[in-house]
Specification:
Blueprint (H helix, E strand, L loop, with lengths): L8 E5 L8 E4 L3 E4 L7 H12 L5 H11 L7 H16 L9
Antiparallel strand pairs: 1-2, 2-3
Helix pairs in contact: 1-2
């Protein structure tokens, strides 16, 4: 988890687990603390595997409840679109150089 951010950065989103879920640095770098690429099915299986060794049962149950909330599985698509828009704004298509 991010415990302290540089002054020039801004928080894009937060969660119950951490104050900084996404971070934007001077409109040129974006970071994600979570894993928006994970599907709900994958996360459910991962929590089940890690619950026994790493994640306390109460936190695992809370995470599973959040995954089962309506709209939870849509977060990955939303974040993917944000990332694509961000990179398009900051990295316009390059033209081929004439030789």
């Amino acid at each position: 988890q991010v415990s302290q951010m540089p002054a020039k950065d801004s928080v894009v989103s937060s969660s119950e687990i951490g104050e900084v879920a996404e971070d934007l640095e001077e409109n040129s770098i974006i970071t994600f603390q979570g894993h928006p690429e994970f599907s709900t099915e994958y996360e459910t299986k991962l929590i089940g595997i890690r619950e026994l060794k790493v994640i306390p049962k109460d936190r695992a149950n809370a995470a599973l409840q959040r995954l089962n909330q309506e709209g939870a599985s849509e977060d990955g698509a939303v974040l993917s679109n944000w990332a694509v828009d961000f990179f398009r704004q900051h990295n316009p298509p390059q033209r081929a150089h004439a030789k």
